[in-house]
Amino acid sequence: MDELKDIYWAEKHLVKSLPKMSKAATTPELKSLFEEHLVVTQNQVTGLERVFQLMGRKAQAKKCEAMAGLTKEAENIIGDTEKGSMTRDVGLILAAQKVEHYEIATYGTLARVAKTMGRTDVAEILGTIMDEEKEADQSLTAVAENSINVEAELELA
Fold it and tell me: DSSP code of 91?
């Protein structure tokens, strides 16, 4: 339950952070990815609320120090890079993928724990959220590899 509270806080925090990342992004593709993932994240918050309900508990958030640190890192990247640059987008992708990897690990573990406890209903919700995080990670990789990384390299040349 403690880790559910942790990831619940993390997702609610991301609902506040993703619009800032979208606003800071240079390319329309990255802005769009952040905006699309905001909608997914809002639905994940609802999914977690359902998990709490299934577990007979009130949805409660506990500050996730890991997510607070990861989103602070994204804010630092925004502050440390030039507005309108591809270098900023590379940094934002890096920060976003760190978030996704943290979430993938958390949801994967929680889904396995739920399954072990015989809570396949909960495991299914958590597994679905994990798959959504994996998809977001793959989308970020695709955008980076298809254009942003190369364009950022040209900025440095």
Answer: H
